[in-house]
Amino acid sequence: MQTRRIGDVEVSAIGLGGMPMSIEGRPDEARSLATLHAALDAGVTLIDTADAYHRDADEVGHNESLIAKALASHDRGDEVLVATKGGHLRPGDGSWTLDGSPEHLRAACEASLGRLGVEAIGLYQFHRPDPRVPYADSVGAVRDLLDEGKIRMAGISNANPEQIRQAQEILGGRLVSVQNQFSPAFRSSEPELRLCDELGIAFLPWSPLGGISRARELGSAYAPFARIAEAHGVSPQRVCLAWMLAKSPVVVPIPGASRPETILDSIAAAELVLTAEEIAELDAV
Description:
Blueprint: E1 3-6, E2 9-12, E3 16-17, H1 29-41, E4 46-48, H2 62-72, E5 81-86, E6 88-89, E7 97-98, H3 102-116, E8 123-126, H4 135-147, E9 154-157, H5 161-170, E10 175-181, H6 190-199, E11 202-206, H7 218-221, H8 223-232, H9 236-247, H10 260-267, H11 276-283
Parallel strand pairs: 3-4, 4-5, 5-8, 8-9, 9-10, 10-11
Antiparallel strand pairs: 1-2, 6-7
Helix pairs in contact: 1-2, 1-10, 3-4, 4-5, 8-9
């Protein structure tokens, strides 16, 4: 497995996004654990989660608990960087709400610590800006958690370039990651990717294959991905992730998965080398 860096930690070039194993349409626990263990067996050392990755109102942190169980039952579990997030909530009716208040973020971090069973969270990310709370206050709360040793590294998610620069200043140059949506269907985070490349901050594309409902449509919706995939004898999804890795050494995709075969196909993207002509063709899609 090729590796990349988040802060001072070396991680697998492809991570695993845990959300599909905990929200609507999720598989049973046995299949989720099999998926997580398959990823670990294949060398994945980055797993992304959040306290809001759950379905019902009374199961906050479902995905964090699931990941903690998978890591505890695998002999390589202690080699994994778990990245979790706070600032989003799910009332249980399928909607997503926000609370970026310092009080909530502190309480959310404490709860995540308990579910993950760790003394310090490897990477803690502010999940999404809350328009009711000054951004500096939310990021300041993350800075305090970092200063107190509750978290080892700090990141932000769903941020624009101005917020990235602001967070980097508030954190005293210790911002290690930005997690934004980025896929063939969602290119508007290109400026954030370029800024992260400039600053040497890890860029973690979420829903890199287009999301749970659209990942299978990648080849049919974007013909060049299908054509290049056929030429290499691989899936369009694998081509997509290889294309992202080629964009910058700071890119670490975190494709979601709920089946062992899905994450294994994604992981293989780290070994797929695309030509400059192929990359240019995909860039132009």
